[in-house]
Amino acid sequence: MINARQLEVLTTVIEVGTTLRAAELLGVSQPAVSNMIRHTEDLIGITLFERAKGRLVPTKEARLIAQEAQHLFMQQKRVSRIVREIREGSRGSLTIAASPSLGLGLVPRVIGEFATGAPQLRVSLELGSIDVICDMLASGQADIGFALTQPRHPAVSHEAVGAGEMVCVCPPGHPFARMRRIGVADLNQVPHISYSAATPLGQMIDRVFAEKGLERRYAFEVRHTATALEMVAAGLGVALVDSFGLIGRRADNLERVAVEPSMPIRINAMMPRLFPTSSLAISFLDRFRTVTGAAG
Amino acid sequence: MINARQLEVLTTVIEVGTTLRAAELLGVSQPAVSNMIRHTEDLIGITLFERAKGRLVPTKEARLIAQEAQHLFMQQKRVSRIVREIREGSRGSLTIAASPSLGLGLVPRVIGEFATGAPQLRVSLELGSIDVICDMLASGQADIGFALTQPRHPAVSHEAVGAGEMVCVCPPGHPFARMRRIGVADLNQVPHISYSAATPLGQMIDRVFAEKGLERRYAFEVRHTATALEMVAAGLGVALVDSFGLIGRRADNLERVAVEPSMPIRINAMMPRLFPTSSLAISFLDRFRTVTGAAG
DNA sequence: TTATCATATAACACCCGATTATACGGTTTG
DNA sequence: CAAACCGTATAATCGGGTGTTATATGATAA
């Protein structure tokens, strides 16, 4: 019927009064404006201007149309702004699913970096087991997932986005703090915090102990490294944690000591195979890699 | 940036899933859709679809844009509807200024006819003296004016839109009702309703009496024919009224009798010279003419 | 393998919306 | 009154966005 360009020309002419100044404002020639108005009048069958003494006088109808067109212009600007924000990565929604080990420490920190300066960005973070994460990804409820274990799900792809190892943390002044490295067996000699045998970390540590013919003995049992860290910081004992959990954490109330034997861990990023990965998720992944790469 | 057509194609493809069905819905060929999408992606620099196994899978970004575009489409439809309503004369605002003689009888009746079936039409009617009417027109407060007297104002044009004459009305069973015509002098013999000497009608009637060397004598004085009509209908007496006031009025409680000598009157429509007359005003004028022409 | 469906590419056509150049009517001005 | 100026309209033309048909390519189903 009548298109946005025609409405734009119409309202501009009404605003500034002459085709000449309207043409200047619109950055086109005067005949373009003149022709457009005539064409629009023919198209919609409404007289938009009276030609009085060589001047254009807008009719009431033209004024009404121009007024209503303002709402259309608002929406045009809105869509343009949203498109621009998407391109600049500052708009969109990103849903992240993570295992508690990562979701309570490293991931929130990366989100914090990622979201600064992008107020229109909505990030939501869901915690869950590896199976829950896979289900969320497969069903489109989450865009990207992070866990220390590898997913086994046909609709979920994965890739390593960070390599690290288990390290020992202890309060400042603890005997361990003066050692360059400790053996896992040493842990049994001091009160320490460890993980439920039902968790991946607990199983991994148990495996290492088992190889040495030992049995893990600990004072406090937790499920997540973030909890263990807080307990160590509170002075309750030492703990084995993944090196990622220490990234960005101020070191004034924690000492870090290497562990023998090395227990390598890797962070797996997971993405759904059934849906295209959003560009927002991809750029989040990039940011994630720079963080873990800098201090894995 | 991104235009409405591109958004339309985008949302259609997302809705129906394939370029082929989108092309059908949009009434264009499949390559047109395919090219448009590619072109849009290049234009805005955002990947809108992933090409997976020969199918197009919309990205999150595309979904978001399509969703926001709905508001734009709403406004487009709204503007189109308004344009159509204007063309069909069923939308707009029309302000009419009329003298009380017309504004209390004939004009409201024409407005009633004019506005039926056009719910979006706003008509306002202002009553006033001929000078007030002229001022309203000259200042753009009114679109069109109606009066029995001719305007004398440089910025107001006028034209006759109905010719009639003064007629005598009397209650059914009144002695006058059996006469084919009466003389003005006969009025002095019966109780009758007439007009203040300060009104145009009063002056006109006085002039006729004066030509016959008579003086007008009446029982009730009013200012408007509409009032006079009501009083006659109430049985208070007879009256001279303009023939327009009887148009459309049911005749069961009023008898109409011609008057000698004839007192021709005309209705003047007035329009501002400084502003273009709205098409709504012009079509109202047309309707007015058909009403007065049918039974002047 | 063949048939079918969906997308992409190539080559071409059309028309909208732009251009420049110029004419024309009105108002202002020396 | 003629000249200058302002604003609009017309003519002829151009370019690109958006369309077309024909066809290739790739994935899936029979």
Automatic annotation (TrEMBL), chains A, B:
* PROSITE patterns the UniProt entry points to: HTH_LYSR (PS50931)
Domain HTH lysR-type, by residue range, is: 2-59
Tell me the domain of life.
Bacteria
Keywords, sorted A to Z: DNA-binding, Transcription, Transcription regulation
Q: Does the keyword Transcription regulation apply?
A: yes
> What Pfam families does its record include?
HTH_1, LysR_substrate
Q: Has the keyword Transcription regulation been applied to this entry?
A: yes
Give the family per the record: Belongs to the LysR transcriptional regulatory family.
| Name by which UniProt lists this protein | LysR family transcriptional regulator
| Species the sequence originates in | Paralimibaculum aggregatum
